[in-house]
Amino acid sequence: MTSIKCNKCGASIEIEPGTKFAKCEYCNSQMYIDKSGVGFFYIVEMKIKEENARGIFKRWSAGSAMAKDLENEAKIVKMIPEYFPLYMFKRNVEGKEAIYFEPAKSTSLPGMHALKVPAGDIKIFDQNYIVDPRAQIIQPDLGMDAYLNNLPGKAEEQALVFFPIWYIEYSYKGNIYNVVIDASSGEVFSEKFPTRESYPYIAVASLGFFLFLIYGIISLFWKFTYGLIGMAITTPILFLASYFVAKNM
Fold first, then answer.
1. Three-state SS string across 151-195, please?
2. How many CA atoms lie within 13 A of 166 on its CB side?
3. Residues 6 or more apart whose Cβ sits within 8 Å of residue 127
4. pTM (2 decimals)?
5. How many angstroms separate the CA atoms of 85 and 75, rounded?
6. 6 pLDDT band (50/70/90 cuts)?
7. What pLDDT, on a 0 to 100 scale, did the predictor assign at position 168?
Protein backbone atom coordinates (compact mmCIF):
# COMPACT_ATOMS: atom_id res chain seq x y z
CA MET A 1 0.00 0.00 0.00
CA THR A 2 1.04 3.58 -0.60
CA SER A 3 -0.64 6.87 0.14
CA ILE A 4 -1.41 10.10 -1.66
CA LYS A 5 -2.83 13.41 -0.49
CA CYS A 6 -6.26 14.54 -1.59
CA ASN A 7 -5.91 17.61 -3.81
CA LYS A 8 -9.03 19.15 -2.29
CA CYS A 9 -8.92 18.55 1.48
CA GLY A 10 -5.39 17.27 1.97
CA ALA A 11 -6.47 14.01 3.63
CA SER A 12 -4.29 10.96 3.22
CA ILE A 13 -5.65 8.28 0.86
CA GLU A 14 -4.20 4.79 0.82
CA ILE A 15 -4.06 3.09 -2.57
CA GLU A 16 -2.64 -0.06 -4.08
CA PRO A 17 0.40 0.37 -6.35
CA GLY A 18 -0.70 0.89 -9.94
CA THR A 19 -4.09 2.32 -8.97
CA LYS A 20 -5.27 4.94 -11.47
CA PHE A 21 -8.47 6.14 -9.83
CA ALA A 22 -9.18 6.87 -6.17
CA LYS A 23 -11.81 8.52 -4.03
CA CYS A 24 -11.20 10.61 -0.91
CA GLU A 25 -13.27 9.19 1.96
CA TYR A 26 -13.40 12.59 3.65
CA CYS A 27 -14.56 14.95 0.89
CA ASN A 28 -15.67 12.39 -1.74
CA SER A 29 -13.41 13.92 -4.38
CA GLN A 30 -12.55 11.63 -7.27
CA MET A 31 -8.91 11.62 -8.30
CA TYR A 32 -6.88 10.39 -11.22
CA ILE A 33 -3.37 9.24 -10.33
CA ASP A 34 -0.69 9.67 -12.92
CA LYS A 35 3.02 9.16 -12.34
CA SER A 36 3.44 12.92 -12.81
CA GLY A 37 1.00 13.71 -10.03
CA VAL A 38 -2.54 13.50 -8.71
CA GLY A 39 -5.46 15.31 -10.32
CA PHE A 40 -9.23 15.34 -10.33
CA PHE A 41 -11.23 13.74 -13.08
CA TYR A 42 -14.28 15.12 -14.78
CA ILE A 43 -16.79 14.33 -17.48
CA VAL A 44 -18.52 16.44 -20.13
CA GLU A 45 -22.24 16.00 -20.70
CA MET A 46 -23.27 14.14 -23.85
CA LYS A 47 -25.70 16.71 -25.23
CA ILE A 48 -26.05 15.23 -28.72
CA LYS A 49 -28.32 12.21 -28.59
CA GLU A 50 -28.31 9.42 -31.18
CA GLU A 51 -31.16 10.78 -33.30
CA ASN A 52 -29.54 14.21 -33.42
CA ALA A 53 -26.15 12.67 -34.22
CA ARG A 54 -27.71 10.83 -37.18
CA GLY A 55 -29.19 14.13 -38.38
CA ILE A 56 -25.80 15.86 -38.08
CA PHE A 57 -24.18 13.05 -40.07
CA LYS A 58 -26.89 13.33 -42.74
CA ARG A 59 -26.37 17.08 -43.12
CA TRP A 60 -22.59 16.65 -43.15
CA SER A 61 -22.80 14.02 -45.92
CA ALA A 62 -24.78 16.49 -48.06
CA GLY A 63 -21.98 19.07 -47.93
CA SER A 64 -20.70 20.74 -51.08
CA ALA A 65 -17.33 18.97 -50.89
CA MET A 66 -18.85 15.48 -50.56
CA ALA A 67 -19.58 13.01 -53.35
CA LYS A 68 -22.89 13.96 -54.96
CA ASP A 69 -24.69 10.80 -53.91
CA LEU A 70 -23.04 10.39 -50.51
CA GLU A 71 -26.09 11.66 -48.63
CA ASN A 72 -28.29 8.92 -50.13
CA GLU A 73 -25.77 6.11 -50.54
CA ALA A 74 -23.83 6.26 -47.26
CA LYS A 75 -25.05 3.60 -44.82
CA ILE A 76 -24.13 3.76 -41.16
CA VAL A 77 -22.78 0.35 -40.12
CA LYS A 78 -21.54 1.23 -36.63
CA MET A 79 -22.50 4.02 -34.26
CA ILE A 80 -21.09 4.07 -30.74
CA PRO A 81 -21.28 6.71 -28.01
CA GLU A 82 -17.87 7.03 -26.39
CA TYR A 83 -16.12 9.10 -23.76
CA PHE A 84 -12.65 9.91 -24.97
CA PRO A 85 -10.02 10.79 -22.31
CA LEU A 86 -8.34 14.20 -22.42
CA TYR A 87 -5.88 15.79 -20.06
CA MET A 88 -6.77 19.30 -18.93
CA PHE A 89 -3.86 21.51 -17.92
CA LYS A 90 -4.55 24.81 -16.18
CA ARG A 91 -1.47 27.00 -16.37
CA ASN A 92 -0.48 30.44 -15.20
CA VAL A 93 1.03 32.08 -18.25
CA GLU A 94 2.44 35.55 -17.54
CA GLY A 95 -0.14 36.16 -14.83
CA LYS A 96 -3.14 34.88 -16.81
CA GLU A 97 -4.88 31.52 -16.58
CA ALA A 98 -4.67 29.42 -19.71
CA ILE A 99 -6.25 26.00 -20.23
CA TYR A 100 -4.93 23.35 -22.58
CA PHE A 101 -6.43 19.99 -23.55
CA GLU A 102 -4.45 17.07 -24.93
CA PRO A 103 -5.44 13.45 -25.73
CA ALA A 104 -4.83 11.02 -22.88
CA LYS A 105 -4.94 8.08 -25.26
CA SER A 106 -2.99 7.41 -28.41
CA THR A 107 -5.45 7.50 -31.28
CA SER A 108 -5.84 7.85 -35.01
CA LEU A 109 -9.40 9.15 -34.70
CA PRO A 110 -9.86 12.48 -36.49
CA GLY A 111 -10.35 15.64 -34.44
CA MET A 112 -9.11 14.41 -31.08
CA HIS A 113 -6.44 17.13 -30.99
CA ALA A 114 -9.00 19.82 -31.82
CA LEU A 115 -11.78 19.18 -29.31
CA LYS A 116 -13.08 22.31 -27.63
CA VAL A 117 -14.25 21.79 -24.05
CA PRO A 118 -16.72 24.41 -22.73
CA ALA A 119 -15.59 25.14 -19.17
CA GLY A 120 -19.17 25.31 -17.90
CA ASP A 121 -20.00 21.82 -19.19
CA ILE A 122 -17.36 20.01 -17.11
CA LYS A 123 -18.89 17.96 -14.27
CA ILE A 124 -17.28 15.98 -11.47
CA PHE A 125 -17.27 12.33 -12.52
CA ASP A 126 -18.31 10.37 -9.46
CA GLN A 127 -20.84 7.70 -8.55
CA ASN A 128 -23.66 10.24 -8.77
CA TYR A 129 -23.05 10.95 -12.43
CA ILE A 130 -25.20 8.69 -14.62
CA VAL A 131 -23.62 7.60 -17.89
CA ASP A 132 -25.53 6.11 -20.83
CA PRO A 133 -24.99 2.35 -20.31
CA ARG A 134 -24.24 1.94 -24.02
CA ALA A 135 -21.39 4.44 -23.85
CA GLN A 136 -17.83 3.16 -23.84
CA ILE A 137 -15.48 4.93 -21.46
CA ILE A 138 -12.07 4.78 -23.06
CA GLN A 139 -9.22 4.50 -20.59
CA PRO A 140 -6.06 6.61 -20.94
CA ASP A 141 -2.81 5.03 -22.00
CA LEU A 142 -0.63 8.14 -22.16
CA GLY A 143 0.94 9.82 -19.15
CA MET A 144 0.52 13.51 -18.36
CA ASP A 145 4.29 13.87 -18.37
CA ALA A 146 4.21 13.39 -22.15
CA TYR A 147 2.91 16.97 -22.37
CA LEU A 148 4.19 18.78 -19.29
CA ASN A 149 7.56 19.78 -20.71
CA ASN A 150 5.97 21.39 -23.76
CA LEU A 151 3.38 23.52 -21.95
CA PRO A 152 4.00 27.20 -21.22
CA GLY A 153 3.74 28.85 -17.80
CA LYS A 154 3.38 27.36 -14.33
CA ALA A 155 1.04 24.47 -13.46
CA GLU A 156 -2.12 25.33 -11.48
CA GLU A 157 -4.19 22.19 -11.96
CA GLN A 158 -4.17 19.09 -14.07
CA ALA A 159 -7.06 16.71 -14.49
CA LEU A 160 -8.47 13.92 -16.58
CA VAL A 161 -11.62 14.78 -18.54
CA PHE A 162 -13.82 12.25 -20.31
CA PHE A 163 -15.16 13.93 -23.44
CA PRO A 164 -18.28 12.61 -25.26
CA ILE A 165 -18.13 11.69 -28.94
CA TRP A 166 -20.13 9.66 -31.40
CA TYR A 167 -17.92 7.28 -33.36
CA ILE A 168 -19.53 6.39 -36.69
CA GLU A 169 -18.47 3.98 -39.41
CA TYR A 170 -20.30 4.14 -42.73
CA SER A 171 -20.09 2.27 -46.00
CA TYR A 172 -20.04 3.88 -49.42
CA LYS A 173 -19.49 1.98 -52.68
CA GLY A 174 -17.85 -0.95 -50.92
CA ASN A 175 -15.51 1.07 -48.74
CA ILE A 176 -15.70 1.82 -45.02
CA TYR A 177 -15.06 5.33 -43.70
CA ASN A 178 -15.21 6.74 -40.20
CA VAL A 179 -16.27 10.04 -38.75
CA VAL A 180 -16.35 11.50 -35.25
CA ILE A 181 -19.06 13.83 -33.98
CA ASP A 182 -18.33 16.02 -30.97
CA ALA A 183 -21.28 15.06 -28.75
CA SER A 184 -21.06 18.35 -26.89
CA SER A 185 -21.09 20.84 -29.76
CA GLY A 186 -22.05 18.73 -32.79
CA GLU A 187 -18.85 19.50 -34.69
CA VAL A 188 -17.88 16.80 -37.21
CA PHE A 189 -14.35 15.49 -37.74
CA SER A 190 -13.28 13.34 -40.67
CA GLU A 191 -9.87 12.97 -42.27
CA LYS A 192 -10.94 10.92 -45.28
CA PHE A 193 -14.29 10.96 -47.05
CA PRO A 194 -15.65 10.47 -50.60
CA THR A 195 -15.22 13.77 -52.41
CA ARG A 196 -17.01 15.25 -55.38
CA GLU A 197 -15.40 14.62 -58.78
CA SER A 198 -13.52 17.72 -59.94
CA TYR A 199 -12.88 16.86 -63.59
CA PRO A 200 -16.34 18.03 -64.88
CA TYR A 201 -15.72 21.47 -63.35
CA ILE A 202 -12.22 21.58 -64.83
CA ALA A 203 -13.58 20.53 -68.23
CA VAL A 204 -16.22 23.29 -68.29
CA ALA A 205 -13.73 25.91 -67.11
CA SER A 206 -11.14 24.79 -69.68
CA LEU A 207 -13.70 24.84 -72.48
CA GLY A 208 -14.83 28.35 -71.52
CA PHE A 209 -11.23 29.61 -71.39
CA PHE A 210 -10.41 28.11 -74.79
CA LEU A 211 -13.53 29.47 -76.52
CA PHE A 212 -13.16 32.96 -75.12
CA LEU A 213 -9.51 32.95 -76.14
CA ILE A 214 -10.57 32.13 -79.72
CA TYR A 215 -13.26 34.85 -79.66
CA GLY A 216 -10.71 37.33 -78.40
CA ILE A 217 -8.34 36.51 -81.26
CA ILE A 218 -11.21 36.81 -83.76
CA SER A 219 -12.24 40.18 -82.36
CA LEU A 220 -8.70 41.49 -82.32
CA PHE A 221 -7.40 40.26 -85.68
CA TRP A 222 -10.49 39.68 -87.83
CA LYS A 223 -14.05 40.86 -87.09
CA PHE A 224 -14.75 42.43 -83.75
CA THR A 225 -18.48 41.79 -84.14
CA TYR A 226 -17.99 38.09 -84.82
CA GLY A 227 -16.06 37.72 -81.58
CA LEU A 228 -18.82 39.46 -79.60
CA ILE A 229 -21.49 37.27 -81.19
CA GLY A 230 -19.53 34.16 -80.29
CA MET A 231 -19.20 35.30 -76.68
CA ALA A 232 -22.90 36.14 -76.47
CA ILE A 233 -23.85 32.66 -77.71
CA THR A 234 -21.30 30.81 -75.58
CA THR A 235 -21.96 32.53 -72.25
CA PRO A 236 -25.46 31.07 -71.59
CA ILE A 237 -24.27 27.65 -72.81
CA LEU A 238 -21.41 27.69 -70.31
CA PHE A 239 -23.78 28.85 -67.60
CA LEU A 240 -26.16 25.94 -68.29
CA ALA A 241 -23.25 23.48 -68.44
CA SER A 242 -21.98 24.73 -65.06
CA TYR A 243 -25.44 24.43 -63.56
CA PHE A 244 -25.80 20.86 -64.88
CA VAL A 245 -22.41 19.84 -63.44
CA ALA A 246 -23.13 21.41 -60.06
CA LYS A 247 -26.55 19.74 -59.86
CA ASN A 248 -25.71 16.28 -61.13
CA MET A 249 -22.01 15.53 -60.64
1. CCCEEEEEEEEEEEEEEEEEEECCEEEEEEEECCCCCEECCCCCE
2. 26
3. none
4. 0.70
5. 28
6. confident
7. 96
